[in-house]
Write a structure and sequence with these properties.
Blueprint (H helix, E strand, L loop, with lengths): L3 E10 L15 E10 L5 E10 L2 H7 L18 E9 L9 E5 L5 E5 L4 E2 L15 H14 L6 E5 L4 H12 L3 E6 L2 H9 L4 E4 L5 H8 L4 E6 L3 H7 L3 E9 L19 H5 L3 E4 L9 H13 L7 E5 L4 H4 L2 H4 L5 E5 L4
Parallel strand pairs: 8-9, 8-11, 9-10, 11-12, 12-13, 14-15
Antiparallel strand pairs: 1-2, 3-4, 3-6, 3-15, 4-5, 5-7
Helix pairs in contact: 2-3, 2-8
This protein binds NADP nicotinamide-adenine-dinucleotide phosphate.
The site of NADP nicotinamide-adenine-dinucleotide phosphate has 32 residues, from α1, α2, α3 and α10.
Length: 341
């Protein structure tokens, strides 16, 4: 890395958060607005980052404990998925002007090894590569196809059903012929969950989830697609049907302020009902992303798969936006439109 081409802006992870969950203290992220972009080496690509994904995992990667990936290294650009356009390339597979996505980080220009990039299909908006065709769609698809496996007529409950992953899981389960019940945190979110194909939706902030399940799932739940964990998961477990599958996709309730470990009181229902409960990390299945895209892309193109995006403008809006995932004020896949701010 010798001479520099241009300057860029980025956020560096400067120190670890004092608490593993909750709002970030001042100083965790350091904004740098005049950073030299290194000259490309063989195999590298320079990407103009246009979109960045904020995910619950982003907060976990700031901590000093391993989660879906090892901690984001201190002193380096904060890790994030992003999408953008190739502005220079020393990699034989990528040409200037092509649209790509991958772990590009919290920055406006990313120099990355071409091997970590994925090409965005022709005609697909870049933001979709972080949403229906990206982390949200891939995660929903893998959790449902590999673990949930809903059959026609079965009952599927999806938690955080109005969010990025949850809303795709609702639609894929409904498309498989299942009866789908969503769980979400506001009447407006529940309306959206019904609009995209759920038979009903429980507003967990107003209704008792267990009582609602007794009413809405009289024959039991065949698949729980759980994004929340903790007390929510525990409230669902007494309703599992024989041979049910519990997809452990996320545990976003862990991020509640002052949250400690929550015991699962109702685990015995897993045993007596011969239930399979399994977690997964979508990144482990990169080799299958083409297969997943082949299924999701036509459904995206023909309008069968719908999504909402919660877009915040500019890289500098990202630190404050992250917490909306945990207080529920995001309305759809949380994305940052990176650019001058
Ligand atoms: N396994 C994997 O590989 C993988 C990959 C990506 C994401 N995930 C997981 O998928 C889940 C959804 O991620 P996403 O990016 O699509 O986020 P999202 O669902 O768009 O946003 C998070 C939503 O979670 C709900 N929520 C937050 N705290 C809650 C609580 N204490 N109880 C109930 N609901 C709560 C909020 O909606 P309400 O207003 O409805 O409360 C919030 O809007 C997360 O758990 C994430 O960790 C897993």
């Amino acid at each position: 890395m010798s001479e520099t081409l241009k300057r860029t802006r980025r956020y560096v992870l400067a120190e670890r958060p004092v608490a593993p969950t909750g709002p970030l203290q001042e100083g965790v992220l350091r904004y740098e607005d005049d950073v030299p972009v290194p000259q490309l080496e063989a195999g590298q690509v320079l990407v103009k980052v246009e979109w960045m994904s904020l995910d619950p995992a982003t907060r976990s990667w700031m901590n000093d404990t391993p989660s879906s990936l090892p901690p984001s290294p201190l002193g380096e650009t904060m890790r994030a998925l992003g999408a953008g356009t190739v502005s220079a390339s020393e990699h034989p597979d990528f040409a200037v002007g092509e649209q790509v996505c991958g772990l590009l980080g919290w920055q406006e220009d990313a120099v990355v090894d071409g091997s970590i990039l994925r090409r965005v299909p022709e005609g697909v908006p870049l933001n979709a590569s972080l949403n229906v065709l990206g982390i949200a769609g891939q995660t929903a698809w893998l959790g449902l196809h590999d673990i949930g496996r809903p059959r026609k007529g079965e009952t599927v409950v999806v938690t955080a059903a109005a969010g990025g992953v949850g809303s795709i899981a609702v639609q894929l389960a409904a498309a498989a012929g299942a009866r789908v019940i969503g769980v979400a945190g506001t009447p407006a979110k529940c309306d959206w969950v019904r609009e995209i194909g759920a038979d009903d939706c429980i507003n967990y902030r107003e209704d008792d989830v267990s009582a609602a399940c007794s009413r809405l799932c009289p024959d039991g739940i065949d698949v729980i697609f759980d994004n929340v964990g903790g007390a929510m998961l525990d409230a669902l477990l007494p309703h599992v049907a024989v041979n049910a599958r519990v997809v452990l996709c996320g545990a976003i309730s862990r991020h509640e302020s002052g949250h400690g470990p929550v015991p699962l009181d109702n685990w015995f229902h897993l045993l007596v009902n011969r239930v399979r409960m399994e977690g997964f990390i979508y990144m482990d299945h990169e080799a299958r992303f083409d297969e997943i895209e082949a299924d999701l892309l036509p459904r995206l193109r023909n309008g069968e798969l719908r999504s909402r995006e919660h877009v915040v403008e500019g890289l500098t809006a990202a630190p404050a936006a992250l917490h909306t995932l945990f207080d529920g004020t995001n309305t759809g896949k949380l994305l940052v439109r990176v650019g001058q701010s």
